[in-house]
Amino acid sequence: MFTSVLMIEKALTSADVEFVTTLHGDESVAFHVLLQPRGEQADRLLRAIDDVALGELDEAVREGETPEGEEAKSVGQQALEVSLTALRASGSAAEGRLVEDHPLDALKKLVEETGADEVIVLTDPHYVEEFFHRDWASRARHKVGVPVLKLFSHSKA
Predict the structure, then answer these.
(1) Which residues contact residue 48 at a Cβ distance below 8 angstroms, ignoring those fewer than 6 apart?
(2) How far apart are CA 16 and CA 25, in angstroms?
(3) Which of 68, 76, 96, 106 is the most exposed place for a label (fewest CB within 10 A)?
(4) ∠ at Cα 124 (123, 130), nearest 5°?
(5) Residue 42 to residues 15, 21, 26, 45, 61: CA-CA distances in angstroms?
(6) DSSP tally for the chain: helices H, then strands E
(7) CB of 6 within 8 A of CB of 123?
(8) Predicted TM-score of the model (pTM)
(9) How far apart are CA 137 and CA 142, in angstroms?
């Protein structure tokens, strides 16, 4: 069985589930999902710039309405449960947790705990961070010791 650590920032869509569960053909995959809820460290300005770059001006204006910190944890837990249920319904083994400390430290720890074969980072585009190679996937490649695949989510949640 192939073991993947899947790092996400929102609930998986059905298209996302199909995408990640078919990456390895007929080989069975066990997913260990890490969901990073938006926290105090999330930079609203960078998210707004990403929204503008995607032509989503309404989203950029509403960035201030997005739950942050403790409020984001309950939303994150719901997104995690939805994602795990969808992965299991597709026939994959799946377990997960919210990130409670630094995302890359949590990622490295989970890769070591599970003996993961790969890391999949599945997020919306983050143009500013990606341009400067400060996105999770770029930074994880230097930290986790297994291949890291960067994928973009199929739709906004």
Answers:
(1) 60, 63
(2) 15
(3) 68
(4) 85
(5) 26, 29, 37, 9, 16
(6) 7, 5
(7) no
(8) 0.78
(9) 9
